[in-house]
Amino acid sequence: MAQVPQTFLDALAVRTWCGLALRALGRAREEIDAINVYPVADGDTGTNLYLTVESAATAVEAVFAGHEVGAGGGGAGVAPAAADGGPTGNPAGSASSVPSLADAVRAMAHGALIGARGNSGTILAQLLRGMAQVLAEEQDRPHTDGKGLGLALRHAADSARQAVAHPVEGTVLSVASAAADAARTADGDCGTVARAAYGGACAALARTPAQLPVLERSGVVDAGGRGLVAVLGALVETLTGEVPAAVEAAGAAFAPVGDALGGTTSDTDTDTAAAAAAAADAGTDTVIDPCEPPDGEEGDGPAYEVIYLLEAQDSAVARLRERLDALGDSLVVVGGDGLWNVHVHVDDAGAAVEAGLEAGRPHRIRITHFGADDVHTARGERPPRERVQRGVVAVVPGEGLACLYTEAGATTVLARPGEPPASGELVQAVRRAHAREVVLLPNDAELRHTAAAAAEQARAEGIRVALIPTRSAVQGLAALAVHESGRRFDEDVVAMTSAAGATRYAEVTVAEHQSWTMAGICQAGDVLGLIDGDVAVIGADVTDTARTVLDRMLAAGGELVTLVLGDEVPEEVAEHLRARVREAYLAVDTVAYRGGRQGALLLIGVE
């Protein structure tokens, strides 16, 4: 359905823009992932941008839903969700059924901030926040005009550049600045300004290979900038009702800017667009982000990507920037008003998290270990990867377990207590596995439905996925131990499922509050022993409780005990349990690992 154009930007237009941007990024996701080469060629920029905008769109929808409820159903006349390309005119219902422009843009910015993924997604979140700061200055203003939109785009570009520790030209920052420059010179309504910004962004994107040598060598344009062009194209469609032609093009093969906007094209523009098209034809499986490369540019990069939300004061964040800048690269810190999104690439993930703890309260911590193919290959020179036949994707609760699973060949998704991964993150991990067949291990009973949704989406993309309903990371380890990629897929899945099912699992944790349990009433601070998900032991000491749990599990027999210790558990606990097994249970072996910050004090598996 064609968009109904309007001459100003209001809350309904923001809603429509978010929906159309999400749709545009959905179409371009694989294309953007494929040109991802800098600073780490991990092929996920398109996916990260999509997830960031998805979070922004969800937040805007929530604001509209709240106003419709508050209006007592008066929102029946509100335009439909923007993703379907519905109209953005004034509602037929009462004005109270529609949020103000300020409410809508603040929700958009907040949603992007808390849902930002990756380097480019974090920068896009700051771009949206910068726009919101200008558009929400007057709380009761129903809409803005072309001049206001131009000011918002200018502030967005400037604030995004300030958020990056070491800005580099030839990245999404250059594309955003060019869009803002073009918007400021435009004279007219919001549609006119959006067209100008889009044209400036397209031209700047075509120039990125000439600005960054790694892009030129790889024959691609900047991936983050390509994503921003898609988002600005959605803004043009929202405000004019026309779909810019270049958004529909594949890779970097952009239509000349003048043609895309229905105007004329200069010889210079034509040459630039042709160069970009030629670059796309030579595209490789690599990508680019907007932070300064380390000395030498071709050297190895950090091993981990660390992202977390942080509640902290401005002064503490200033000190945090300095510390993280010394620890690694690709540092981007966005946000404000007490809530920040921190992104950095480091070798010492623990130190990056500790820096956040010193600054304030970090949460939604996500640590991704870059595979050797992505990090330790010279930037811009990684050959295109062929899909492997089979891979394993596993959700794990701690960094130590993540490394253990990774060493065994699995692609991991790090989960934190109270912060389970969304289905989109699991789909992203399945794509990252780069395999024709994937075995998915959720390792948590509560993630079964999320994992099932992710498996269905991956199957729709042509990937054969088998979901093994593992309920604990120790069951996942048992499954991974018998995994053999050389045998038939069905046989491998049956063997892994059998191994997981034959493994009883337990955990030792601390009660957070008083509660009724299967073992009686526990008080806050009590040590709890859970067997197969149910509280079986209530104690006061970690070692004693763990020993009781282990004895109960081994009473039914077993050949191998697996212990996974959390960071706060001393090594003596594992030594005591090993000694207990040696003394009381003949022919039973014990292995112990460090799980990191895994939530539970101790995980136990018996198989």
The tally of strands reads 18
Q: Name the poorly predicted regions.
A: 73-95, 247-299, 372-384
Structural class by sheet pairing and helices: alpha+beta
The CATH topology label of the largest domain is Serine Threonine Protein Phosphatase 5, Tetratricopeptide repeat
Percent range of helical residues:
40-55%
Strand content: 15-25%
CATH class of the largest domain: Mainly Alpha
**Rg, Cα atoms, Å:** 26 Å
Count of helical segments? 22
What does this structure look like?
- This protein is of the alpha+beta class and 607 residues long.
- It folds into four domains: 9-69 and 99-240, Serine Threonine Protein Phosphatase 5, Tetratricopeptide repeat (Alpha Horseshoe), CATH 1.25.40; 304-369, Alpha-Beta Plaits; 388-502, Phosphotransferase system, mannose-type IIA component (Rossmann fold, 3-Layer(aba) Sandwich); 504-606, Hypothetical Protein Tm841, Chain: A,domain 3.
- Helices cover 49% and strands 17% of the residues.
- It contains 22 helices and 18 strands.
- It has a six-stranded mixed beta sheet with strand order 15-14-11-18-16-17, sandwiched between helices. The chain has a four-stranded antiparallel beta sheet with strand order 4-5-3-6, with helices on both faces. A four-stranded parallel beta sheet has the order 8-7-9-10, with helices on both faces.
- The longest helix is centred in the first third of the chain and has 26 residues, at 45-70.
- It is elongated and about 85 Å long.
- It starts with 8 loop residues before the first strand and ends with a strand.
- Residues 73-95, 247-299 and 372-384 have low confidence and may be disordered.
